[in-house]
Specification:
Hsp33_helix_hairpin_bin_dom_sf; five-stranded antiparallel beta sheet; redox-active center; alpha+beta; chaperone; CBS domain Like; about 300 residues; disulfide bond
Length: about 300
């Protein structure tokens, strides 16, 4: 996919008279593209959509050039949820799950018991950052809020929703002291905007961002910034798959082809693209010929 749909975007906003900023995310086509490539059970769909929304919110709120990766891991029915989003706002996501162990109406603690959440920032230049905390909360919104509490960063709250094939998210963050120098005033102001966001009802998530923000904060001076489009895009390629074979070493790569009956299949767990390599392809890889000659690629 190369088009940038206007249904998929983040938008920053700021309160002109408060030390608070926000970020809104809407994911329709990109979320649908992820779900179309896998037959995820509904509880997995919902959690993956919420994680996609959270990832996009963080990319929108941060200034960096590179890749942001969120992983939620556990020993339960859903051992892995993973979403990647680049600073260019290309997003993809995947999940691993045991369908037989996922009951309807299961809670996060039942689906991902003793889980942990890892945030990785992989910049184009500079040092990689990674932080991990427990999945501490009744839902992912609480988990992300608690992540920032444990990281001792600025007050930050998340609200996430994924249902009806759409994923949405709202982030509020207290800014460093500027418009409100008084501590008590800052705290009251923060609690005010959070309390209003907490009134969000299930049916209001389907509203467009401007209407929703007006409903919540019509008594405040809220300034909206330009939207930043998002799109589903997978970074897999035949070249990367070939490099994975090269990393095995020539002897092991050739042995793997033989074990697989003359053709190795490498699947992308994000988009389900499949790349095939036979003996001649592997020989070409180690002869320095690259992956220009393709046995076959399938969706």
């Amino acid at each position: 996919m190369s088009d940038l749909p206007d249904t998929d975007f983040t938008q920053r906003f700021i309160f002109d008279e408060r030390d608070v900023r926000g970020e809104w995310v809407s994911l329709d086509d990109s979320y649908a593209a992820v779900l179309a490539r896998h037959e995820y059970p509904q509880p997995v769909q919902a959690l993956l959509g919420e994680l996609m929304a959270a990832t996009a919110l963080l990319v929108g709120a941060m200034k960096f050039d590179g890749l942001l990766i969120l992983q939620a891991r556990s020993e339960g029915p859903i051992p892995l949820l993973m979403v990647e989003c680049s600073s260019e706002r290309d997003i993809r996501g995947m999940a691993r799950y045991d369908a037989e162990q996922i009951p309807d109406g299961a809670t996060l603690s039942q689906l991902m018991p003793d889980g942990h959440l890892t945030l990785t920032i992989d910049p184009v230049k500079g040092q990689r950052y990674q932080g991990t905390v427990d999945l501490d909360g009744t839902n992912l919104s609480e988990c992300f809020t608690n992540y920032f509490v444990q990281s001792q960063q600025l007050n930050t709250r998340f609200w996430l929703n994924a249902e009806g094939g759409k994923a949405r998210g709202l982030l509020l963050q207290q800014l460093p002291r500027d418009r409100q120098p008084d501590d008590e005033e800052r705290e009251e102001s923060w609690q005010h905007v959070v309390a209003l966001a907490t009134t969000l009802k299930a049916d209001e998530w389907a509203l467009d961002n401007e209407t929703l923000l007006h409903r919540l904060y019509h008594e405040d001076a809220v300034r909206l910034f330009d939207i930043q489009p998002l799109r589903f895009k997978c970074s897999c390629s035949r070249e990367r798959s070939g490099n994975a074979l090269v990393s095995l070493g020539e002897h092991d790569a050739k042995a793997l082809v033989e074990e697989c009956g003359g053709q190795v299949e490498i699947d992308c767990q994000f988009c389900n693209e499949r790349y095939f390599f036979d003996a001649s392809d592997v020989a070409q890889l180690f002869a320095g010929g690259g992956t220009d000659v393709a046995s076959e690629t399938r969706h």
